[in-house]
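User: Predict the complex.
Assistant: Input components as received:
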Amino acid sequence: MLKITDAPTGSPYLHLDEMQPWNDHLQTLECVWVTDEAPGVKTFAFRSDNQTWFRYKPGQFVTLELPVGEEPVMRTYTLSSSPSRPFSISITAKAQADSIGTRWMFENLVPGMRVKAYGPAGGFSLYDHPAGRYFFLSAGSGITPMMSMLRWLYDCAPMTDVSFVNCARRPDEIIFRSELELLASRMPGLSLGFLVEERPRTQSWFGPTGRLDLTRLALLVPDFADREVFCCGPEPFMRAVRVLLEASGFDMQQYHQESFGTGPIEPVPAEIAEASDGLLPSEAPEVATTPVTFTLSGVEAEAYSGQSILQTARASGVRIPAACELGLCGTCKVKASGPIEMNHNGGILDDDIADGYVLACCSTPRGPVSVEA
Ligand code: FES
């Protein structure tokens, strides 16, 4: 069990306004507690190892670098904590049968252990879509970003009108159920609904059972058409919700869903493919390249036209951590200078860009560049 005296010796207590925000490039995370939430679901809470606070929007995620084998694995987890409690963050994860990273955390991650993390990042937040009335709809562990947003509303805007519906297989698999019921007793504008697939044999259950359809949706949230909808869960669930809402005539401008996407398969630059297409090296047409200097590794590389900084780094043996490879998660943030074109999807803050950072996965050199990696 950690004690407050475990803080670095001689380090005085700092008030929030005296602290710097956590910097994922400088500080690791220290696990401070682990708790069971539901069968196969745990929450892991972290603080920074260097008195800092966490700046993020409710609903955002972090990427953890987990030392699973010889090569660490990157896994992205939505934060279940609220930025209104900024001294620590927590993630809530379900260990699927075939999971590697989450299974490692379940078996190895204990208080006192440190892990590297990147972020927070992501645009799935009510901050970005202010509305008078919300509808949070989730299935299984998709409840995590909703919990972050609801905890934030409870702390900062408890009168907000929220309809919160969670779908689960069985009642005992409803994550955060007792906390949700407590919040509902204290937030006058919060209405809760649970939908379970299987009626339990040994417990009483007074809520609806079955799968979500238009009839059940209208019973759970009669005015759903007038609400800003946030949806998170397995992809088939979110697809089914989109179909339902579209069929009901819902204005899909008011619909938002969590999506990490999947990393793209790295394309072979067209010039390389063409150049190697049956031609001997001496016969290959000249291919345009741009010099890239990786200053920390001391590597001089060449980026082919269209190749990202991340692809160039990999091709030259320089390691830049990356998870989503879509410009979303912020894991591949590096300091770089020179003419660079970046097309990100919200994974980097304007402040970071002003400080000279880019996301390597979605940045392309447009002339000689130098990268701190
Ligand atoms: S790897 Fe996620 S933003 Fe680059």
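The chain has a mean pLDDT of 87.
Let me know if you want any component modeled separately.
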